[in-house]
Amino acid sequence: MVPTLNRRELLLGSGGVGIAAIAGDTRPETNAAGADDPSDDSVAVVSQHHLATEAGLEILEQGGTAADAAVAVACTLSVVEPWFSSVLGGGTWALYYEADSEEVTSVDGVGPVGSDATVDDFEDRAGDYGMHQSIVPGAWDGWMLWLEEYGELDLAEVVDPAMTIAREGYPASPGMIRWLGRRADRIEERPDAVEIYMPDGELVEEGETSYQYDMADTFEALSDAYTDRRDEGRNEAIQAARDYFYRGPIAEAIVEFSDENDGYLTRPDFEEFEADIVDPISIEYDEDLEVYQNPPNSQGITQLLALNVLEAYDLDEIDPDSADAVHVQAEAIKLAFADRYHHVGDPDRVDVPVADLLDEEYAADQRDRFEMDDAMEWPIDSGLSETDADHTTTFHVVDADGNGAAVTTSLGAQFQVIGDTGIHLNNRMRMLSLEEDDPNRLTPGYKVRHTSNPYLATCDGEPYVLGGNTGVDMQPQGQTQQFVNVAEFGLGAQEAIDSPRFETTAFPSTQHPYDIGNTLEMEREFPDDIVEELEERGHDVDLGGSYGTANMIVVDEDGDLEVGAESRSETADGNVVQLED
After folding, report:
1. Could you tell me the pTM of the whole model?
2. Mind telling me which InterPro entries this protein's record contains (predicted)?
3. According to CATH, what is the number of the domain 278-391+453-578?
4. Where in the chain is the domain with CATH 1.10.246.130?
């Protein structure tokens, strides 16, 4: 059994540039061994940017819950990494563990395809960037549901860190500069983006101060809408912030921009949209572990399908640094993606056979479909009969009461800024199929099969692992490897994040033009002998690059909180801190 949460006095996680190094913070640091006087007041935040991690800790120190802190982190990431995610323009799937009820829930903060979309019109422009790629941004409504259901603080307190950073500025990171360079041609064509990222006629350079003034004004307007109704009650105030976005000035601005730029969004699309807190899906992994994922239309079931196949193998008897370890995970992942391709879409549009897919007997049948000395290639059929038919960030929070938030939220790096709102809008429609019988086919009013899918594992009913991996189709693959590293191979949180990753492409890509690579892509840190052995088994290995970014929190066997922050990133940071009385 994993003991009770929150046992460390003070830990600062590794794997990125800490806020102390940036801001000259003089807080004491210790190593991962923890302190001499364990306490139940420890909290943990890990994210892709040190400023976002600091924002989450600030909210927890003010008495906020994991939900409050998660919203603060998400808002801050919208400012400092607006190409990866946006609480205002993107979509979110997230899992929440509520300590009082010991229940896990999932928030579906994903909006639908615009009413004016058609397959014929989109097909001609599917490969182009622009407003026609945007769906209704559902994230804000999802975040407001979390504040309503699980939060304690007022909206002004939660958005203040992001609003302050947006106005006072933040240093342009190396990652930001790389993305600006990749998208320079698009930015130059968009005056509202130019104002932010080319204020002097040239792209912002590394280390220069960047600002998001208009985004700060939008946060303030939403906060004011909340404050104006606060006397009527907190829930009424939250509803006012939701209405300001979806039935007020923000929706009006987005739809007007959409009309002017050949998009598909309408006012009714916004007015009728509501996010939802839904039941997660889960599997039992071994006797005492339960792994939770987000249900369709999320692709989260893909990780569970892979783990169901892997669960019967004695992975703890396999050398984690071996070809066997890579091969068995890669083959299980291929079968999982075949089922995703054949079955998963918006459950309001197609029948997704979740129970059949997660059935233990089905997993046993799937195991019999691959060999240890032979690699499968696409096409790979589903084991079930057919039914009718990296532009992401992940972060995690555990508060002092043992509540936990596992979040993956996404946008798409097209730098589509909506007028003077500062909102960066998603390009999620590039992940819709145009094939008639595909469960993920473009259908106005229905949702894309969304790639965001953080996971949360419990041990004997208490949080054990909160994790995520970015990168479109890499998400469930990296998360499977991450979980196996901890649960089977006994690695710590940071070790699990640092371990080299691989990605199979033996299925149609989620993104247009839906290419099939049939390769096994591996980071160069894998030893040559492992690569050679995998090639002998039939894998077409492609070496180089890195595969997604990952962050996680693990509650170890002593009940201590461990963070793993993405070591491949210059800005990721994870901290475990003891709150002061």
Report:
1. 0.90
2. GGT-like_enzyme, GGT_lsub, GGT_ssub_C, Ntn_hydrolases_N, TAT_signal
3. 1.10.246.130
4. 278-391+453-578
